[in-house]
């Protein structure tokens, strides 16, 4: 296994699989924030201290195996160029913060890319587990297993009253962020998301874009996650999130049924217009590609479009990002060059999927 494995395989193996409610839920993620005992947090640590954390993690874990995941690949951020890091961000394997702001950061990645352990991001350690569809409980179980595995060799900063100690006060307690990535085009089309988002926020959850905090909900894809980490167990947090997600699934399905009943021909026209744009355009910007891909994915789910895999949305949403386009081009591209290459790539992939 090598860096090229993660850069050249555009779609993680977990993204190719079908999961529960995968017509609406693209993925489930659990992330645990941890810090090493008696070490200053990354937000205030020196470069020497950051290097020490990286070497500690390399020494203990770079050649160890974990259950069926096998040996994890150890990648150091300063050994990667900006484009390589951007590709890993676009695949959700590392965070934008680790890529952009962590001079002495690193990560441990499993070959199937379900597991990413980020080092010296906002905290010393961030364990991330990703599963297809609605599998929050399974993601939590794997994250807890990895947490115990790490703690066999290192000691965490922990307080009996406050729980796990973290750089940001909002993560103190369990240190856990659970989230699901959802495709909600019908709720957007029927303008229900404008009232749903404030209601979700009042429940202690937050709605973000495809790449988390500060990102845009491209292609009608939203990330729903918990805000509270203190005062509840990991299981309670996951169960609360599951309850809301299941309601959103029901509302999205109901909105889709209503659109089919009241505006079937208009909806079908929208789907096939977007398909036509994707299949024939010579220039394609990121936002337009995301919007059209969302329409086509909805058309596949509703049975308007046949013989195209549902996973095409996962694949093309990654492939058409700026980092991947430049990775395949072998170097930097101007925005207009990326738009031309994006359109060409989409046309080719659609032909392969027919």
From TrEMBL:
CDD domains cross-referenced by the UniProt entry: bacterial_phosphagen_kinase
Catalytic activity: L-arginyl-[protein] + ATP = N(omega)-phospho-L-arginyl-[protein] + ADP + H(+)
InterPro entries per UniProt: Arg_Kinase, ATP-guanido_PTrfase, ATP-guanido_PTrfase_AS, ATP-guanido_PTrfase_cat, Gln_synth/guanido_kin_cat_dom
Regulation: Appears to be allosterically activated by the binding of pArg-containing polypeptides to the pArg-binding pocket localized in the C-terminal domain of McsB.
Keywords: Allosteric enzyme, ATP-binding, Kinase, Nucleotide-binding, Transferase
GO MF annotation, one: protein arginine kinase activity
SUPFAM superfamilies assigned to the protein according to its UniProt record, in alphabetical order: Glutamine synthetase/guanido kinase
Residues at which ATP binds: 27-31, 92, 126, 177-181, 208-213
Domain Phosphagen kinase C-terminal: from-to ranges: 24-255
Gene3D superfamilies tied to this protein: Glutamine synthetase/guanido kinase, catalytic domain (3.30.590.10)
Motif (RDXXRA motif of the pArg binding pocket involved in allosteric regulation) on chain: 338-343
Domain of life: Bacteria
EC number(s) per entry: 2.7.14.1
Family per similarity comment: Belongs to the ATP:guanido phosphotransferase family.
PANTHER family: ARGININE KINASE 1-RELATED, ARGININE OR CREATINE KINASE
HAMAP family noted in UniProt: Prot_Arg_kinase
Biological function: Catalyzes the specific phosphorylation of arginine residues in a large number of proteins. Is part of the bacterial stress response system. Protein arginine phosphorylation has a physiologically important role and is involved in the regulation of many critical cellular processes, such as protein homeostasis, motility, competence, and stringent and stress responses, by regulating gene expression and protein activity.
Name of the protein in its database record: Protein-arginine kinase
Organism field: Sutcliffiella tianshenii
Lineage, uppermost ranks: Bacteria, Bacillati, Bacillota, Bacilli, Bacillales
Gene behind the chain: mcsB
């Amino acid at each position: 296994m090598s860096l090229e494995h993660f850069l050249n395989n555009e779609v993680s193996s977990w993204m190719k699989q079908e999961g529960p409610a995968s017509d609406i839920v693209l993925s489930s993620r659990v992330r645990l924030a941890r810090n090493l005992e008696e070490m200053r947090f990354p937000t205030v640590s020196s470069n020497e201290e950051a290097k020490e954390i990286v070497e500690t993690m390399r020494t203990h874990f770079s050649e160890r195996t974990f259950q069926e995941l096998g040996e994890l690949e150890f990648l150091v951020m300063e050994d990667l160029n900006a484009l390589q890091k951007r590709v890993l961000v676009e695949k959700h394997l590392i965070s934008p913060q680790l890529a952009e702001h962590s001079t002495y950061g690193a990560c441990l990645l499993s070959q199937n890319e379900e597991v990413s352990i980020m080092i010296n991001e906002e905290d010393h350690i961030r364990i991330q587990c990703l599963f297809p569809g609605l599998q929050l409980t399974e993601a939590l179980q794997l994250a807890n297993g990895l947490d115990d595995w790490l703690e066999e060799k290192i000691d965490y900063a922990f307080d009996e009253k406050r729980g796990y100690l973290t750089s940001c006060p909002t993560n103190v307690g369990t240190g856990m962020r659970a989230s699901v990535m959802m495709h909600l085009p019908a709720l957007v089309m029927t303008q229900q998301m404008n009232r749903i988002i404030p209601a979700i926020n009042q429940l202690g959850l937050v709605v973000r874009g495809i790449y988390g905090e500060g990102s845009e909900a491209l292609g009608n894809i939203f990330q729903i996650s918990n805000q509270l980490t203190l005062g509840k167990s990991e299981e309670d947090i996951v169960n609360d999130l599951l309850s809301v997600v299941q309601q959103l699934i029901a509302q999205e399905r109901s909105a889709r049924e209503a659109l089919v009943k009241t505006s079937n021909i208009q909806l079908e026209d929208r789907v096939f217009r977007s398909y036509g744009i994707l299949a024939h355009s010579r220039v394609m910007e990121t936002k337009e590609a995301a919007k059209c891909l969302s329409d086509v994915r909805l058309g596949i789910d509703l049975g308007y479009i046949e013989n195209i895999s549902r996973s095409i949305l996962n694949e093309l949403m990654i492939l058409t990002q700026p980092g991947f386009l430049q990775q395949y081009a072998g170097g930097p591209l101007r925005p207009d060059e990326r738009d031309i290459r994006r359109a060409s790539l989409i046309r080719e992939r659609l032909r392969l999927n027919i």
